[in-house]
TrEMBL record:
The keyword Metal-binding does not apply. This is DUF1223 domain-containing protein. The chain crosses the membrane at residues 7-26. It holds the Pfam family DUF1223. It comes from Chitinophaga oryzae. It comes from the Bacteria. The lineage of its organism: Bacteria, Pseudomonadati, Bacteroidota, Chitinophagia, Chitinophagales. InterPro entries: DUF1223 (IPR010634), Thioredoxin-like_sf (IPR036249). Keywords: Membrane, Transmembrane, Transmembrane helix.
Amino acid sequence: MKYFKEIAIYIGLPLIFLAIMAFKNINHRNMITSIQQDSQDKGFAVVELFTSEGCWSCPPADELIARLQKGNNNQQLYIMAFHVDYWDHQGWKDRFSQADFTERQKQYAAWLRLGNIYTPQLVVNGKTEMVGSDEGAVLGAISAALRGATAPPLTLKAEQGNGTLTITYAGAVPHKKARLLTALVQKTARSEVNAGENAGKQLSHVQIVRQLQQQELKEQGTVTLKLPAGFRAGDWEVITFVQQKNTGEITQAAKLTW
């Protein structure tokens, strides 16, 4: 009987583990569906993922924001992936990485009083941070943000010409301690990684920030972005948001898609 009990234990424990994981996956899918379908949401969520092609633990976070982006049902959900450069010396240089994005992450460490920076890190509305691959924490933070207070509408218009994109904005709430940030975002990309922690993998990316400009906030004004060679409007979007200088909190956001 002891022999059969041991077999039952050896078989039962993996089954219990699989059942728990299946329940968690179903629950997370339900949470994503709830986020996508809740038409009563009045708030907004600016989601910033700090990631790198050289980080072995980053692909699950990239996949999570890809699912969120794919299923976004006209929610005020603004997703941006910032590729940092401090992994570039680990054997693989991320072609999307920028030192400015590392500095932005360091600024969040100061705002949120964190001891260090890491990847994958995800920040929601400049106020809440978590491990970017922690589905439960990410979905919970986004859901809470979408249920938040309605922000004053920020309107955007764009005009393309001579290799630039001129964004005209209106409806910003002026504040001497706030600034306006505008990101030029590439919707999708794929990379063959030949070295580093993800060597041999083909990585898929979404919502890659290629430019980030910031300027003093006015009630209305313009922003000019330099367009990359071969720019096709349908492959890109622009996200503009208002951020408090002293706390990092994001108080307004809008985007342009084509």
